[in-house]
């Protein structure tokens, strides 16, 4: 089946194209990863979880994050701030409905508090 032809619209040579409408995410779209603010990157300050709570505790936090996160590229990396890793754990564990069995990694552990 042939598509009907679109009508030709003449545009003046000196006219500017109209701005594209803003891109809107559907309400049911999954959460998108947010880039780290510039202030947390390259500012000379250590924003790394490993520097904040130590290598062993950061490794345990990263393991918990990887175990519960459904994201394809989660922020589960000791080079990220601990708050970002904890937020991903909280977000991931909050996805479980009442009556569903949550992974053991969703319960608080011995990693230092926020």
Please give the largest β-sheet: none
Query: In angstroms, what separates the terminal alpha carbons?
Result: 62 Å
Taking all Cα atoms into account, the compactness measure Rg is 23 Å
Poorly predicted runs of 5 or more residues: none
How much is the average pLDDT?
A: 77
Summary tags:
114 residues; mainly alpha
Explain this structure to me?
This protein has 114 residues and is mainly alpha-helical. The chain has a domain at 46-95. Helix content is 27%, strand content 0%. It has three helices and no strands. Helix 2 runs parallel beside helix 3. The longest helix is centred in the middle third of the chain and has 14 residues, at 55-68. The protein starts with 48 loop residues before the first helix and ends in a 21-residue tail after the last helix. The mean pLDDT is 77.
Summarize the structure.
The protein is mainly alpha-helical and 114 residues long. It has three helices and no strands.
SSE arrangement:
Blueprint: H1 49-53, H2 55-68, H3 82-93
């Amino acid at each position: 089946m042939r598509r009907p032809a679109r009508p030709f619209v003449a545009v003046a040579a000196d006219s500017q194209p109209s701005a594209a409408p803003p891109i809107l995410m559907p309400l049911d779209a999954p959460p998108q990863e947010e880039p780290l603010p510039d202030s947390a990157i390259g500012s000379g300050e250590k924003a790394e979880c490993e520097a904040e709570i130590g290598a062993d505790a950061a490794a345990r936090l990263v393991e918990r994050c990887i175990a519960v996160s459904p994201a394809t590229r989660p922020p589960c990396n000791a080079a990220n701030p601990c708050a970002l890793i904890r937020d991903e754990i909280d977000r991931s564990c909050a996805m479980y409905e009442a009556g569903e069995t949550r992974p053991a990694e969703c319960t608080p552990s011995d990693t230092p508090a926020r």
